[in-house]
Amino acid sequence: MNFTALFSFSMVSVLALMGLIVPSAAAPASTSLETRWGRSGKASWFNVGLGSCGQYSSDSDMLVAVSPGAFSSGIHCGQKISVSANGHSVTATVLDKCPSCGDGDLDMSPALFQKFNDLGKGVFSVSWSPL
């Protein structure tokens, strides 16, 4: 076997082995979108109606509107979330987009807001995560 053939064979072998090793070493543990979009922010309330998810709701429903970034293209429509504040946690459903909300902020139905505070409070700190 001449030097060129031996060198070529060696390089192909090394590259083939690297192809087996690199993908398994480079793949981090996957983190689903659901575990990355929970946040903390400000909670406010609004009178609900036809939401950005295309569903009519009433003020008595346990629902939230999320920021444009969290809403994205509606991928989280119908997603159940756990909302926590003032020592309480309540399950709510994402059914709308809040154009004026910042990242982590929630706009709540009046019924959900009242689980934490009187409507006269206006705004309070909240944390939330997907279920």
UniProtKB/TrEMBL annotation:
Residues 40-127 form the RlpA-like protein double-psi beta-barrel domain. It holds the Pfam family DPBB_1. Residues 1-26 form the signal peptide. InterPro entries: Expansin_CellWall (IPR051477), RlpA-like_DPBB (IPR009009), RlpA-like_sf (IPR036908). Gene3D superfamilies: RlpA-like domain (2.40.40.10). Keywords: Signal. This is RlpA-like double-psi beta-barrel-protein domain-containing protein-containing protein. It comes from Pterulicium gracile.
